[in-house]
Amino acid sequence: MLKANSLQKLQLSCGLFVLLTALQLTAFAQSPQREVAITFDDLPATRGDLAKLEYITRNLLPKLKAENVPAIGFVNEQKLFAFGQTDRPTALLRQWLDDGHDLGNHTFSHVSIDQVPFEKYAEEVIRGETVTRTLLEATGARLKYFRHPHLRTGPNEEYREKLAHLLADRAYAVAPVTIDNNDFVFSLAYTYAKEKHDQTLQTQIADAYVAYMEQIFEHFEKLSRDFLGREVKQTLLLHANEINADHFDRLAQALRTRGYRFITLDEALKDPAYSLTEAQSTRGLSWIHRWMLAKGLPMREEPLEPAWIRESARLR
Fold first, then answer.
1. With contact defined as beta carbons under 8 Å apart, do 295 and 167 qualify?
2. Would residue 83 count as lying in a domain?
3. For residues 186 and 157, what is the distance between their CA atoms, to the nearest angstrom?
4. Cα separation of 160 and 113, whole Å?
5. 109, 77, 106, 107: which is closest to 92 by C-alpha?
6. Which structural domain, as residue segments, surrounds residue 54?
7. Which stretches of the chain drop beneath a pLDDT of 70?
8. What span, in angstroms and rounded, lies between the C-alpha atoms of 231 and 7?
9. Percent of the chain, pLDDT > 90?
10. What is the pTM of this model?
11. Measured CA distances, 157 to 152, 154, 314 (Å)
């Protein structure tokens, strides 16, 4: 009798476990999956000599492939001509295309839109597409996306409208950003730590970077829910820099833990939110903030990087 009772209890426990597991799996399947498009600015890489640009490309692209992340990189073509020859830096862009990623125009020299007249900015747009367009067409693709440096769309509404007409005439779509952040500050700090061969500090900065990015995502997820009633298909701005080259895999895994699936920019922009009216701003802002400002709602500033990170980046 004792053995029979024990067997019944075991069977009951197993049954409950199976039931709970099934309920959890059902709840997970029914919960909406988060989606994010990964974009990188300042290709071939943000800063450094040609060897550094090659290092960043050589280490970043395999991580994208290993994590099955489709990405788009926005090119500053001035960097292709900065080293006395163009073959090696141009080959870095080909590597992005060979790995199945897309490329976009980020102006020729990352010009500041509030510091030049419209005619000069228009020249930067056109000059910034020459090599990128040729590389894309050689693969059967076309140059489709433009990303404003600093996410600034114009110092005033007239300037912005003239630029919008220019981009439309040249068959560009603007590449928006919903999740803005200061990854470049962490990368500056990280690069200085590498130059000092301080492995402990490098680890601390990388850990702080992943934690900061999770805070950033949490902020914009909530902002989207509060404003739209749901979470938009997010678009993440990153830079082709050293910290992402060394630690993008950790960031990707953290985002998967948050429930994210990685999608292309084309897929993200199918979300109807991207057709909402956006406010003009002289600041580089998330498009969620721009949509909110257009509705007369105040924006909510995103989390800042820790003060010690700014100090390590030699920023005050």
1. no
2. yes
3. 33
4. 10
5. 77
6. 34-312
7. 1-32, 316
8. 47
9. 85
10. 0.89
11. 12, 7, 35
